[in-house]
Design brief:
By secondary structure, the protein is an alpha+beta fold. The chain has seven helices and five strands, in the order H-H-H-E-E-H-E-H-H-E-E-H. The chain is globular and about 55 Å long.
Length: 132
């Protein structure tokens, strides 16, 4: 049993930072981050669905926090409404969809963050969509 335990720890254990590092080039194609933590899309966001736009913004917040540009990767509903300029109803409805699909996590009422284990699939989906 100890041998298997050691093998699992050495061969199967991954960290979130490794996962985020693995996707950095994909992120670089889609967005940039200012030193004050603002997320700047490098693509035409009008080609994306609201859920893709929100997820991409949340992904940017993850990397902004890693860089130390923001204190938290969490995003408030108000921030999404003001930054993405989407209607409040669209934001609320889309956040519920994203929670139901387990793409985001509600930290408390009106505050969410992206599920790190869903970042790669979302990035792949967005990249595929904008390349077609």
């Amino acid at each position: 049993m100890e041998g298997l335990k050691k093998w699992v720890k050495e061969e199967l254990t991954v960290t979130e930072i490794e996962t985020l590092a693995k996707n950095k080039e994909k992120v670089k194609q889609l967005l940039g981050i200012t030193t004050d933590g603002r997320i700047i899309f490098k693509i035409d966001a009008s080609k994306l669905l609201a859920k893709e736009t929100i997820c991409l913004y949340m992904i940017g917040k993850v990397y902004a926090q890693i860089a130390g540009y923001v204190d938290t990767e969490s995003v408030t509903n108000k921030e999404l409404i003001e930054t993405l300029r989407l209607p409040e109803g669209t934001i609320g409805y889309t956040l519920k969809e994203l929670r139901d699909e387990k793409l985001i996590i509600a930290e408390r009422t009106g505050v969410h963050r992206i599920s790190h284990d869903k970042i790669e699939a979302m990035l792949d989906n967005i990249l595929k969509k904008i390349q077609t």
